[in-house]
Specification:
eight-stranded antiparallel β-sheet, 13 helices, globular, Beta-lactamase, alpha+beta, asparaginase activity
């Protein structure tokens, strides 16, 4: 049992549920068996992979819709089980930064909430955040990568350009973290450390919005800390952000609504979803997580148990339909997940049991 005091947020956490902020270039963490959440192991089937009318594979998963007061409206599986929100946590992390003085607005604030596609306008915006803070790309500590978007990635590689932190999909978040550090006089070289004042502020905000203390701490794909919360807590957080009418919460939600292309990209379903459903905010995450906030204060969260992204948006669409969302453009962007045979559609991934 380890005593982890991330500024009072996690205490008496079992050793297997803790992790330091690792250097992405450093040695890999030792792989050891860990307990699996019963919510994941007992998750019901939520999607079929259909090829030529035959169910070839199935995906298990969890889903929940919360009421404006944060209670459960309906759920599929056990939404009290912990999950890492992965990049779905970014709007919550951005809220913590705004509360600590981050003064960006509009597109630049939306980029702080993003897993952007690495298109030219995303890269320019990330550079702008750094420039305003008197920083440069060399200050970024997110993992270098090629652009996320297939078209942008192909052009980048064809031009002979290497992987870079500024084009990696988390550069908006990391640039905003650095800018927040500068505004507060905090050290910019250790901003990924869980004990850093920035990360302590984020942990506090995660706990507040989720309505529960984080249940685990680990290193996200970009190198920053990530906190596990119950899936219902993730939904609750997005409902709170979406219904806010003032303060930092409303600033974050307004930026996402006004600049959805900065939250995702020109060819991303999360961008289409935000653009076509008035008042909605949404954020996709790795390992098949998706979170949505509805303007009436309801929250939605989905997690596919095996981490397969191909079922994530399809299941989310089914949950949104059940929650009363009817915009067919937005839903079509989520539901279209064909199964190919010889390069042609011969089936689809379809949601079941929602």
């Amino acid at each position: 049992m380890a005593l982890l005091c991330c500024c009072g947020i996690l205490r008496d956490v079992p050793d297997h549920l803790t992790a330091p902020a690792a250097d992405p270039s450093g040695p890999a963490l030792e792989s050891t068996p860990s307990p699996v959440s019963p919510a994941l192991t007992n998750a019901p089937v939520v999607a079929h992979v259909v090829r030529g009318g035959f169910v070839e594979s199935v995906h298990h998963g969890l889903a929940v819709v919360t009421r404006p007061d944060g209670s459960v409206d309906f759920e599929v599986g056990d939404s009290s089980g912990p999950v890492f929100p992965r990049s779905s946590a970014k709007p919550i992390q951005a809220l913590a930064m705004v509360r600590r003085g981050l003064d960006t607005e509009g597109a630049l604030l939306a980029l702080a909430c993003s897993s952007h596609s690495g298109e030219d306008f995303h890269i320019e915006a990330a550079r702008s955040i750094l420039d305003r803070a008197g920083l440069s790309e060399t200050d970024l500590q997110n993992t270098p990568d090629h652009p996320y978007d297939e078209v942008a990635r192909t052009a980048w590689i064809a031009a002979g350009l290497p992987k870079q932190s500024i084009v990696q999909n988390c550069s908006g978040k990391h640039a905003s973290m650095l800018a927040t550090c500068v505004l507060n006089g905090w050290d910019t070289t250790t901003y990924r450390d869980p004990g850093h004042p920035l990360q302590a502020a984020i942990a506090e905000t995660v706990a507040e919005l989720a309505g529960t203390q984080p249940l685990a701490l680990a290193v996200d794909g970009c190198g920053a800390p990530i906190h596990a919360v119950p899936l219902v807590g993730l939904a609750r957080s997005f409902g709170r952000l979406a219904r806010a009418t003032g303060g930092p919460e409303a600033r974050v939600a307004a930026a996402m609504r006004e600049y959805p292309e900065f939250v995702g990209g020109t060819r991303r379903d999360v961008t289409t979803l935000i653009r076509h459903v008035p008042g909605l905010i949404a954020k996709d995450g790795a390992e098949a997580v998706y979170a949505v906030g509805l303007p009436d204060g309801r929250g939605v969260a989905v997690k596919i148990a095996d981490g397969s992204a191909r079922a994530r948006s399809v299941v989310l669409a089914a949950v949104l339909r059940r929650a009363g969302i009817t915009d067919e453009v937005a839903l079509a962007a989520l539901e279209h997940e064909p199964v190919l045979g010889h390069g042609q559609p011969v089936g689809a991934v379809v949601a079941v049991g929602i």
